[in-house]
UniProtKB/TrEMBL annotation:
Keywords: Aminoacyl-tRNA synthetase, Ligase, Signal. GO terms for cellular component: cytoplasm. InterPro entries: Cys-tRNA/MSH_ligase, tRNAsynth_Ia_anticodon-bd. Residues 1-18 form the signal peptide. This is Cysteinyl-tRNA synthetase-like protein. The keyword Ligase applies. One of its GO terms (biological process) is cysteinyl-tRNA aminoacylation. One of its GO terms (molecular function) is cysteine-tRNA ligase activity. It comes from Trifolium pratense (Red clover).
Amino acid sequence: MHLFVVLIVDVVYMCIDSYVCLQTLYECEILLNQHDQTVRKDAVPSDTLNIIDIDNLYDVFLTSMSDDLHTPVVLAGLSDPLKSINDLLHTHKGKKQQFRIESLAALKKSIGDVLTVLGLMPSSYYEISTPELRIDSAIRHPTNFSKFLFNTGVALVLQQLKEKALKHANVTEDEILQKIEERATARIQKKYAKSNAIRKDLAVVGIALMDSPNETTWRPSITLPLQEQL
């Protein structure tokens, strides 16, 4: 693959992976804010959770960086702890898990520590400063993207990444939501070919559909043609 394409793919992957990380942490923050801050302060992961070793997450990250792994690879390595957070947030089993809040707080802190070192952790989840860069210019270079993330609240980062994806895909969010409804109807009617076609059509333009037990949402993604080049 041409070097320029490789660099573009790396930056795009960093944007997408950052979106997934921040969206998950944002949902986690909203839930944790509903609980006693004293519980969060000294949160310790429960031994009863059959998930990743939270205590060693940061050490593994440092080892990866010392092996000269670039940022997109490190971000991809966060998939297991992010999945654990999503399970605790959204699945029936996760919601019933003992020490759920403590485990969420510990996972969130560990992932946040990694993103902070990478320069990908915004300074706030809610309050935002006036960013010196918008997402349009920030995604052209990893350093700019890190600066943009730090100066901008998570909510605005997620919003701008979504807006950029919609513009690139030449669709509106209402059109995507309509497609999600059409796909849900097709699945109920067991028209799986139509359901798969809707998902693929959106994937082609960089829109990924994410199914959960309660709903289907969308997020920015690598376009399907670009994925096939990798």
